[in-house]
Design a protein that fits this description.
- By secondary structure, the protein is mostly helical.
- It has one domain: Serine Threonine Protein Phosphatase 5, Tetratricopeptide repeat, CATH 1.25.40.340.
- 71% of the residues lie in helices and 3% in strands.
């Protein structure tokens, strides 16, 4: 039998309370690990070195809410997470991530599974909400990987393999993150930064937008969490 015949397709993952809890644990741990590095990339819109901290506070509070409560269904847990995310969302990135995660979860609230199609709908809803939260959205910010991941999810919505879809989503988000380096100069000059030597140095160091980095870190943990749970669920041979 050929190697192709041994490949397996993951069509869907069952949405459960345990899965959602694991996703938030993973996202919280990832952001905590990257918090200081995200803060160091905090050049735009204000170099206040708090993007990582605000992101960590937002997701940690939601993760704690998920752990402490007793929930009989994913719907109950998602309702609780919606409250937590809207209550604890400090700073610009906290607000953006709160809106993104809330809309992502609400889109899945009445679904029984995560599949390429339901995932695409969740990414689309989340991207729209995040754009509203940004107020005056600019290219070269978190909006770039948010939109790129949504577009990739939509493009692969009819895929049978959820793993393939998730890989494509993450790949496009990472490309968008890397591209924020090219857009940093324009954003900083528009903001009034006149030290061109400093801007040149940031470009040479391949500095990226802090919010975009934070989003991709969350996205990596989210998709990896789904992938890990998928290993425990049934796969369909082709």
């Amino acid at each position: 039998m050929s190697q192709e015949m041994h490949k397996k397709v993951l069509e869907k993952v069952i949405l459960s309370v345990d899965l959602i809890r694991q996703l938030f644990q993973g996202m919280s741990s990832a952001v905590k690990e990257w918090r200081d590095r995200i803060d160091k990339m905090n050049y735009y819109p204000v170099p206040d070195a708090d993007t990582g901290k605000n992101l960590a506070k937002t997701i940690y509070a939601a993760s704690e809410a998920a752990e402490k409560g007793k929930f009989r269904s994913p719907k109950q847990l998602i309702d609780k997470l919606e409250d937590s995310l809207l209550e604890t969302c400090p700073g610009n990135m906290g607000a953006i991530m709160s809106e993104w995660l809330t809309s992502f979860l609400l889109s899945l609230r009445d679904q029984k599974v995560i599949s390429p199609k339901t995932l695409a709908k969740a990414f689309e809803a989340a991207a729209k909400s995040a754009q509203v939260a940004l107020g005056n959205p600019k290219q070269g910010t978190a909006l770039d990987p948010i939109n790129s991941s949504s577009q990739a999810a939509s493009k692969h919505a009819d895929q049978k393999d959820l793993n393939h879809s998730m890989k494509a989503i993450l790949a496009q988000a990472r490309i968008a993150l890397e591209d924020t380096t090219k857009k940093l100069r324009e954003l900083l000059i528009e903001k009034g930064v006149v030290d061109l030597n400093k801007i040149d140095q940031l470009e040479q160091e391949k500095a990226v937008d802090a919010g975009a980095l934070g989003f991709v870190i969350v996205l990596e943990a989210l998709l990896e969490g789904i992938r890990e749970v998928s290993n425990e669920q049934t796969t369909i041979p082709v």
